[in-house]
Amino acid sequence: MAKQIRLNAFDMNCVAHQSSGMWRHPHDRSWTYKDLEYWLELARVLERGKFDGIFLADVLGVYDVYGGSADAALRNATQIPVNDPFLVIPAMAVVTENLAFGVTGTLSYESPFQFARRMSTLDHLTKGRIGWNIVTGYLESAAKGAGLDKQSAHDLRYDIADEYMQVAYKLWEGSWDEAAVVRDRKAGIFTQPRKVRKIDHKGEHYTVNAIHLCEPSPQRTPVLYQAGASGKGREFAARHAECVFMAAPTKQIIANSVADIRRRAAAHGRNPAEVLIFALATVIPGPTDEAAKAKLEEYQSYVSHEGALALVSGWTGIDFSKYALDDVVRYIENDAIRSTVETLTVADPDRSWTIRQIAEFAGIGGMAPVIVGSPSKVVDELISWVRDTDIDGFNLAYAVTPESFTDFVDLIVPEMQRRGVYKREYTPGTFREKLFGQGRIRLAADHPAQLYRHSAL
Amino acid sequence: MAKQIRLNAFDMNCVAHQSSGMWRHPHDRSWTYKDLEYWLELARVLERGKFDGIFLADVLGVYDVYGGSADAALRNATQIPVNDPFLVIPAMAVVTENLAFGVTGTLSYESPFQFARRMSTLDHLTKGRIGWNIVTGYLESAAKGAGLDKQSAHDLRYDIADEYMQVAYKLWEGSWDEAAVVRDRKAGIFTQPRKVRKIDHKGEHYTVNAIHLCEPSPQRTPVLYQAGASGKGREFAARHAECVFMAAPTKQIIANSVADIRRRAAAHGRNPAEVLIFALATVIPGPTDEAAKAKLEEYQSYVSHEGALALVSGWTGIDFSKYALDDVVRYIENDAIRSTVETLTVADPDRSWTIRQIAEFAGIGGMAPVIVGSPSKVVDELISWVRDTDIDGFNLAYAVTPESFTDFVDLIVPEMQRRGVYKREYTPGTFREKLFGQGRIRLAADHPAQLYRHSAL
């Protein structure tokens, strides 16, 4: 059987996730993000298309690097306003049975004790359909909201994150034994006290002396996602992540990153094939190549350069407002900018990029490929990405929502199924079972969280 | 028109909220708290009964005073395990249109910046059906979970809470002007930057330098609930609360508290009639008085003394495990215990209470009246409570869930409607409009949060 392609839909509880300006398109409904109806419809569409999951990004601050203020971000609704991603999940769970929910949780500003309860609650309510995208945060503005002068240094953030994971594993895996809850009506015993343990964690960054507040949820630890691209980030992913999310515009960059992550995972004694890797992509399909191309061009006419550059400025820390749209990047005397767009030049090192072209590229789905064409052409391309880079699937951004997802489900999913590269039915069970096979409800035996099970805490 | 009686259902995302041992009753479904189905069914029942809201309690720790450990609480599922209350609300919102959701948020362990976003998100998703029960926490074990040695002192907790409210008001009321979001497709402007302000709060306990992450939600500030019974707590309620929740076993105690709260509210320049007061009560109705009495007796046979005393020990800080069930309280040489049960003796100062009787009283719905009888008798009693104490309605605890609520909706609601003391239709609009009249979407003009609107922050 051909390798099965995994699919996540990539969205965020905000107006213009990674397609800046597109909220002006008459079909776009992203501005209704604050209504339940948007999320219920999206969830139904994705489950109809047998998507593995919906992956919800998040930030806890504003993009205020561009022009030195949040003005451009506000004008363009560049991920601001932005609502809490956790709270749309229970609603979507009501109208679906198999769709999983990967949610971004920024660990820098919340105690692991309360956070662990929120995740366990979601895992209970969804009967084991929860994943957690572990994020340390990258916006200075988020630190200011939390009352700090600035973020912790990048590497320190990952050290703190490592300890946070330890505490979370202790709570999820170690505090309640499997048979703790007996619900024995005759004896009047709901939980056997001797099978519940206080964790007593005294670390460098966290102190927790408590039992986990929740009885064991189906998966205990949610499926763990990570997206760090730096060396420290990859090392963290290789240790902890079951799924890794990557974003880059070319196959070669992705292939190198995939090989590196798998190598690092193996070095940690984990099965490298069981770190599932999802590459960001935007698909614009049409009944014919020409129709798809026309659709892309129509979308592109709505891209906001300012909004897209506000986003790229936030990601890179470079204020792109200081340059004219027609400035050619290779002639700008700024090492940081050149390094930022280096990724764009890997495929064709001789190509020149203007600031405008960067905005237009990033303005549809972010810094990642836009795959355009008929079902047959799109599926060829998806298969070639999987084959050439060793990824396991895609994190699909939208240009226009939910149209981009509806188009994909109606046009591309049937073609993928016809080619035998996509499931016709969901695997029963929890999210982890759907990803790794029936019976695999809990973390794999080679995962470091195992250290915290049934051990003296 | 007779005074309209308000109703909240009182529940918690746990097994045995305030009716310890009742999870063993064959009809009780409280042990399915972790499934969406429980909450969806409950929400539908309550909306059918035109309940104003469901009020969700919460704790962030365990009841470990009784016997000096969490063992009794665990055995009896005394509010442990306990899941997050926020996450069941979006699911219930999917299947209801008018039911409001009052949720307990413990402010001691979460940054106001993130908390404000969660509340705004819920207010958006429910189209303005959210209330917040402001709680500072009372369990030492919760402080230990959050990594602290112990809680802040009681009075200091309320000072911290006051500053927390200031920050929250600034975010909810002051950061985004009414007309900030224009969604002007032609001009490409989603939000007008000059109509969004950073709050720059530097206080004794909190520092926040950020814009609120959410665009204005229907109510902006959620309907504010408070339940503090101490002097400091009442003072806090009189300043901030739009609804107050009280729990006491006799009319006289309630009447005194109501008068005190209304007096304090007036002293703060607020309309004392617009602090709506809900008294805790449990109603066991039956088609006849005899049938109801038989039902109560059957319920009582399931009460767990140990579980109920674990609860009362947690509330009072007194370890009741040190006494025999048949010890008579007035003969116990312990001032704290005598003061705890003083409330029980107001109605009949000559009555003796044993520890067992206290457990049995608290074991059905907590330290509050249990009203038992035919519809006519129950409604007589409810009306007399409202008349004699000046309360506005009831916070109804369950003995067995959802049976206690279903019984109330089927038997008591029609009788209340027949007597003209209960609505036949919901008022359209937000929760605040349902409570205070159409058009009253935002906090009243005499509420202190007004200080933080459109002002220089």
Overall pLDDT confidence of chain A: 92
Shape field of chain A: globular
Distance between the termini of chain A: 45 Å
Oligomer: homodimer
Largest interface: A-B, 74 and 74 residues
Q: How many strand elements of chain A?
A: 13
Q: Please report which band the strand proportion of chain A falls in: under 5%, 5-15%, 15-25%, 25-35%, 35-45% or over 45%.
A: 5-15%
How would you sum up this structure, described in words?
Two copies of one chain form a homodimer. In chain A, 38% of the residues lie in helices and 15% in strands. The first copy, chain A, has a single domain (6-456), classed as TIM Barrel. In chain A, helix 4 packs across helix 6 (154-174), helix 6 packs parallel to helix 7 (231-240) and helix 7 (231-240) crosses helix 8 (251-267). In chain A, the strands form three sheets. Chain A has an eight-stranded parallel beta barrel with strand order 1-2-3-4-9-10-11-13, surrounded by seven helices. Chain A has 15 helices and 13 strands. Chains A and B meet through helix 2, helix 3, helix 4, helix 5 and strand 6 of A and helix 2, helix 3, helix 4, helix 5 and strand 6 of B.
